[in-house]
Structures are given as structure tokens and as C-alpha cells.
Amino acid sequence: MFKYIVRRLIQSIPTFFGITVLSYLLLWLAPGSVVERLYLAPNIKAETRARLAAQLGIDDPFHIQYLRWLAGDDWLRWDSDGDGLADGSFALLVPLDEDGDGEPEPPGDNYGILRGDFGRSFVKKQPVLDIFLANLPATLELGVATILTALAIGVPVGVISAVTRGRLFDNTSRVMAVIFDAVPNFYLGYILLYIFGVLLGLVPIGGRCVPNLYGVCPPFYSRLVYLILPTFVFAAGFIALFSRYVRTSTLEVLSQDYIRTARAKGLSPQVVNFRHAMRNAMIPVATLLGPIITNVWAGAIIIETVFAWPGVGRIAFTSAIQQDYPVVMGIVIFASIATILGFLLSDILYVLIDPRIRLD
Amino acid sequence: MNKLARILFLAVFVSLFAVGASAQDGGILIGTNFGGDPTTINPLLTNNTVDLNLVEFLFPSLYNIDPETRAPMKAGRNDQDNGLALDWTASDDGLVYTFNLRDDVTWNDGAPVTAHDYKFTFDALASGETSSPRGSVLQSVEGVEAIDDTTLEITLKLASCRAIDELDDFGILPQHAIEPLLEGDFATMNDLEYNKNPDVTSGVFNFGALVPDEQTSLIRNGNHRMPVSPEGYIVRNVPDQLVGIEQFLAGEVNSVGTAGSASVPAARMQEFRDRSEAGEFQTFEYVDDGLTFVGFNLADRNNPANGQDEDGNPIDQGVHPLFGDVRVRQAIAQAVNYDDIIEGAAEGEAIQVNSFGTPALWGYDSSIEPWPYDPDAALALLAEAGFVDHDDDSSTPLVATEDALYAEAGTEFSFEMLTNSGNLVREAAGTIIQDQLGQIGIDVDFQTQEFGALVTFLLGQDFDAIMIGFTNLAQDTDARNVFTPVGDTVGGGFNFVSYRNDRVTELYDEALSLPGCDLAERQALYHEISQILHDELPWWWLFAPFSMYAESNDVQNWHPYAETRYANMADLVISS
């Protein structure tokens, strides 16, 4: 299995680079720029906007911008004598005196993502990694709670539905699964916020922590009330998905000979259904985990916006709107890695759950 | 079980502690912000309203602004506001301004705020090394000298009645705190930690904390010469306006919007009005300082060109085949029912405007009659301009005859109108315009574009007509950059419609260089400009929206003004 994992990781490298080129190209092709979005006003001169664009490097051609982001620019224009001015450059790509004012430009100071430098946000002027890490705990909190909730509800519901096939519980759960799957979660979010937040006042209307002057957010177990609605709304679609997969899979397993044998041996229905049947019925669930991790990333954008949840999805949304390329690209990178690892995790779980499967 | 009980007890205890931390003496003012996190809290580097709403409570400015008239106002000693100028004088030629500054304003570390701080901030701007967007003041200012701690001398390049406005275009930074961090290079200011966490400030509040995508807090400056009552001011970051409004109605926050943004949407103003009258909360309404309009491209969109060369000589830009004729523009202005637009698009919460500006600005001339709805007059004007109904079928477009000034005979009266997608008011207004112009034989291809794409069309002067809005217009209605050839530059200028009228240019210049800068005389000049712009319609003047502040009843002694929610922060008492 180790060889398989290594091979999969090596295979993912070209995929990863393909994603970065395509993503950067799409951002670059988008009309307008961060400067026009932030500084478009009659009292701000066109020359000022041009200067700000040059400071950010967004007036450079695509290949220079991409190279700077990928591999940095300290090798494109460098300062060997330490006087703060560049004295050498990779002239094929960037001239020493780019603006033609007779003075060399400052040396490059970006290292690029290949050397762990994700750049600085055009808008927030902070390292992208800092921005990402500041919001990551909120997204992890919500994402983990969502997946656990979906598993905790979806799997038992699927098993019980299969066991009680055609009866009230089964029919009700199938109808609910269709509803949870069909209703857009932003809409479900608004409805539940209105009922439980506005009308009943049982939960706060969005947010993650009690507002306070010092910006302190207590541990999650002391503010579960903030987590209930976004988790449930986010998990609703996954509950539907899990319950339907597990139901189908369990029905298939229940008709197997070894289940009949277990029953014939006089084992209790609980032992047969949950110990013998459920483990085998879980195999499809394992294959779902990879895509679900990807979906949690993507779905966070909507859920976090509706519930004012300060996670990575919020950064992705606002940065895309503001055309803050470094941040968007940083999130694309993290999401790509999560997706690649998620699918790999699915494969590994597959083996762990079903010993008959071997990875070569 | 015992373990579970202990965990539950701990959870409840910590929850109580967390809630208790926010309920301190003096009360905490909590607002909502729909515009994202502050990007920087450095008053020199910012240009967005989220940042500016915080900056106003943290940094000194050159002078105070009268909240009623929004004109520059001389400070009194011991004023709560952070304007420094006690008074100022201008030299006879209007080129040198001398400001006499207060000596009782201090930074929160005890150092005095002085003229040297203003000079330091200006020098940072003038270096061109910072990412400040506030370079327009450099067009006017030759140099700044701090004669002593309380005397500031500013020399202008040209006498300008707007100079006084421009000199206060940025907040003042603490030289003693920032200069050592720069290591002699103003460029390093862009990345200072200070920009996110300004520890040395000089306002009624100190900076508290920024929790990304969640909240920003300010904490009462207990050492201020006039400490305010609220213990602090928290701005919650709520990306969805609908959710923010429900938070307000549920009592989770004190206000919809922040210090300078109103944010009650037009669709809910009547509900808020009714509930306010019922005593549920407080509201304050005003006409916004922004307007929505349709810009007509007067030049040939197929060959965009600047309005003038470097020596000021006109450049041939061609003429738009339809909008080059002023009669066509006037016909369009009379072909649409403005009540329908205001009711249908702006929920009735707007006022028709007659020219550039809004009734909120002193340069606006309310005596000019807005364009009426008169489709018969519109058709007559179009016929005079050479556009007729050639087949007696009102469902087909009018066509140009030989009499048309710029359109070739046989050309159908059809044009493209753009606006930005996602702006529901403009999308609705565009649909109404498309429908009503269609009824008199004008075919409008109404399209919505993503904002970035729209800006590319706008600044590239590659459009027929474009519906957008200007917000936060300056009180001084000087708009040389918008309606004279100075601003007619492809790719960046704001005279994107390529309007040129030498009399308008002359009047703008006169209004800026008027000796003594008498407000009434300048107002008369702006009124003459307004009449010309009304008649010639380089923009089709549509409406200025109403704005509404909503504040909970917990906030006592609240006396807001247009564009200024908390003019009297010192008097506010938060009762819960």
C-alpha cells in the first residue's frame, strides 16, 4: 500500500500544476482588476491607479505574473551588493530598469509557492498563509462537525431504512432524503435562521462567537449554540446522501448468504444488522468521503456567507470578488491538496474496510 | 455520567463567562458591516468606507467637518472631535494657507499631536512610495512646512477653492511611532503591522482587535480629554445584509450598518418607518449623496480617443450616430416615466434628479425642473432629429432619414445599454427603460455585465449607453474630471462619455479660482453648469436614493446627520 500511496502522490504532481496554470489563467483573463475594484473614483487619478497596479505587479504579462507566483522573483531581479537596488536581472524576462527612469528597480523579494511563499494579499497586504490559517480553524470546526453529524445520522438511518424496508420509517426517511437533497442549503439556512433565530430566539442569528471587545473566542464546546444551525444545514445534503447509499448497500448485503447463515445461527437482529451487515454496507460510504471533503470546501463558501461564519469559504468568496489573485490561488492550492488527499483517503479506507481489496 | 455532568457544567460556566465579558459598564455599541473586513486602518492608505468608518474614531484630521453642512469647521479647544485647526488664513494670492493648530490633542501614549505629524504624513504621500490612493492632493500642493508644533504652512501650486477640501483628504499619522519603523523607506509603510493593529492613535477610542471575517472592536480611550460613555464599539462583519437586518431586529446589534453607512434596503424602508413610529427602534432618513444615471457615449465607440492632446488641443473622437445629436438625448429623457422607475426599481425610495449632484449637496440647483414624462414631445423631437416610424408599426424601431445629423439614412434606432449584474435596482430600472423606450420605437439591447467587465467597457469608452451610479459625492460639486476634456482619457478618465462644452469648462475653472472663494458666488456658477448639463444631457439624470439609519432604542441621545451616524459619540449612552 505504501508504494501505491507514493505512486498516487507522484501522479498527482502534474495534475496539481495543471490546476495552478488553469486557475491562474482564468483569474488573469477575468476583466478588470483589483485596483479598479478598490480605487475606481473620480478623485483618484488614472496615474495613481496605474502606479498602484505597477506596485502589485498586475500590469506584467501573464507568464511573468505566473512565474513570480510559482517560483518567486528574487531570481528574476537581484541585489548582489546589498544596497537595496537591483544590479542584475534575468534580462530575457524582466529588464533591470523596467520603467525606463534610469534607475534600477528594487530586487524581487518573493520566493514563490514552490518555496513555501504564497505571496501577500493585494487587498489585506498580509501574507496569504496568515490569512488562510487565521480562518482555517473555523472551517475545520464546521467541516468536521458537519461530516460527523452526517455520518452519525445518515448511516443509522440508512441501515434502519433497509431493515424496515417499505414501512413508515423507510418511506419517511426516503422522502426526507429527497427534500434535504433538493433544497438548496442557502435557502434552508435562511428558513431555519428565521424560525429558530428570529421567531423562537433559540439560536443566535449567525456568527461564531459572542461579540466582545477583545476579540476572544472561547472553545467551541462553550458556544455550541452557534454551531448547531450551520452544521445541520451543511450536513443535510450529506445525511441524505449517506442514508440513501447505506440503505441500498445494506439491502444488497442483507440478501447475502452469510447474513442468512448468521440469522440461522440464531444471532440477534441487532448483531446481524449492525455488526455483520453494516460493516460491509459501509464500503460505498468510504468511497464517498473523498468527494465529500471536496464538497465541504466548496459548500463552505455558501454556508459561511449565510451564517456569517468566519472561515476559509468567506475568504474565497470575497477574494474572488475583489480579484485578489494571491489569496484565491492560495485557496485553490489548499483545496487541490485537500481534494487529492481526500480521494487517496477514500482508497485507503476502502482497503481497511474490505480486506478483499488490494491496492497495487 | 458524572464526567458528562462535569463537562456540561463547564460548558455552561464558560458560556456565561463569555457573555459576561461583553456586558460592561457604559455599554457597548455594536454595529454590522456588510462590506468585509477593514483592509488597513492606516488613514493614509485606505479609501474604502469600512476602513474610514473606523479611522474617524482613531486619528486626528486637519480640521473638523460641520455635520450639518459638511463644510470645513474650525475647532474649539476641548472639542471632542479630532480636528486640529483652530483657524486658518489664506494669503492674498490664495497660494499659501497658514493653519493655527490646537495644542491640547495628544496621542494615546501621551505625545502631542503636532504640525510635524501632518507634514510627516504628507511627505509619506508625496514620496509616491506608499500604496496610498490619495494622490490627487499632490496636484494642488507645492509643499508643506511645520513652522512649529502648532503652526502649519501649506503652499499651493495654483489657487483653488477646493484646496481646503483636499488638504484634509487623509487622517494624520503619529510621526514618532511610525518613522522609526520605516527605516528611511516610505515604501515599507505598506506592510507595517501598525496598519492592522494601530497601537498609537488619538481618538475617543483605541483600537481593540480585528478578528478576521468576524468583528473589529474599538475600546474607549480613558485618557481622552473628553472620554465617551460607551465602553467600546464593535463592528460585526456580516456578509449577508438580510442576516444583518434580522440580527438588528432580534436585538443582537444596535444598528444596521456602521458609522457612515445606512444600509436599510429600500425594500424594507416602509416597514422600518412603521416600526419606528410604533416605538420599536429609532430611524433617521436623508437623501443620499449619490445618484444613478445613464451615460451616453457622445463619441464614436469604434474608435475611442482622448478628448485632447498634451497641449490641450482637441482630438477628433468622431460622433456617436445616435447620441451625438442633443435632440435625441432630450427625446429619450422625455420618453420614460420616472415615477415608474422610482416605484418599480427603487421601491419608491428615491427622488428624481435634474442634473449632476443630489439635493444633499450645496452646489445642486433644486429650482431646475427635472425632465418630464412626455412621449409625444419625445416623438416630435425624434422626428425633428430625423428618426421616423417608417412602417406605421410601433413594434419596429424608428429609422433614420436623410435629416439625421450623424446616422446614415435607413439606420434603425437601436442601441446597447449596459449595467452591472447583481445590482437589482439598476437591473429593474434598465428593464423599465427598455420597455418604455420600446413603446416609442427605440430598441434597447439591455445587458448586464459583471462589474470588472463593465469597468473595462466604461473606461475603454467602448459602449453606447451605460447605467451606473456615483456614491459619496464630495460636497463641492466640482466635476472637472467628469465633464471636461481633462478627464476624457481612454482607459482611465472619468469623462467616459467624451462630453465637451467650453462654457462648462470655463465655469468650472472660474468656480475653482474665484478670489475669496465666496460660497454664494461659487454656488451661482455651479447652478449655471447644472442648467447646461440638464439641457445637454451628457448623462441621463435618473434618481438619488433615500437612505435610512436604524438604531436600537438602547442607544440614547442619538442625534445623527446625513452621512454621519455618530456625530455626538460623547453624548451617547448605551443602556444595555
Number of helices of chain B: 16
Percent of residues in helices of chain A: 55-70%
Helix content of chain B: 25-40%
Radius of gyration of chain A from CA coordinates: 26 Å
The proportion of strand residues of chain A reads under 5%
Please give the count of helices of chain A. 13
Strand content of chain B: 15-25%
Largest sheet of chain A: 2 strands, antiparallel
Counting DSSP E segments of at least 2 residues, the number of strands of chain A comes to 2
Examine the coordinates and then state which fold CATH places here, giving the name of the CATH topology of the largest domain in chain B.
Dipeptide-binding Protein, domain 3
CATH architecture of the largest domain in chain B: Roll
What does the oligomeric state look like here?
heterodimer
* CATH hierarchy, class of the largest domain in chain B: Alpha Beta
Mean pLDDT of chain B: 89
- Segments of chain B where pLDDT lies below 50 for 5+ residues? 7-24
Q: How many strands, what sense, and barrel or not for the largest sheet of chain B?
A: 8 strands, mixed
Order of helices and strands of chain A: HHHHEEHHHHHHHHH
Q: Taking strands numbered 1, 2, ... along the chain, how are they ordered across the largest sheet of chain A?
A: 1-2
Main structural class of chain A: mainly alpha
Provide the residue-averaged pLDDT of chain A.
Answer: 88
How far is the N terminus from the C terminus of chain B?
A: 38 Å
Q: Could you outline the blueprint of secondary structure elements for this entry?
A:
The complex is a heterodimer of chains A (360) and B (576).
Chain A: H1 2-29, H2 34-39, H3 46-56, H4 62-71, E1 77-78, E2 88-89, H5 128-163, H6 168-182, H7 185-199, H8 224-254, H9 257-264, H10 269-281, H11 283-306, H12 312-322, H13 325-353
Antiparallel strand pairs in A: 1-2
Helix pairs in contact in A: 1-13, 5-6, 5-8, 5-11, 5-13, 6-8, 7-8, 8-10, 8-11, 11-12, 11-13, 12-13
Chain B: H1 2-22, E1 28-33, H2 49-55, E2 64-65, E3 72-73, E4 85-90, E5 96-101, H3 115-126, H4 137-140, E6 141-148, E7 151-156, H5 163-166, H6 175-182, E8 205-211, E9 215-220, E10 232-237, H7 241-249, E11 255-256, H8 269-277, E12 281-287, E13 291-296, H9 326-334, H10 338-344, E14 350-352, H11 375-384, E15 387-388, E16 399-400, E17 414-420, H12 424-438, E18 443-449, H13 451-459, E19 465-470, H14 480-483, H15 502-513, H16 519-536, E20 539-552, E21 555-556, E22 573-574
Parallel strand pairs in B: 1-10, 17-18, 17-19
Antiparallel strand pairs in B: 2-3, 4-5, 5-7, 6-7, 8-9, 9-10, 11-20, 12-20, 13-19, 13-20, 14-20, 15-16, 21-22
Helix pairs in contact in B: 9-11, 10-12, 15-16
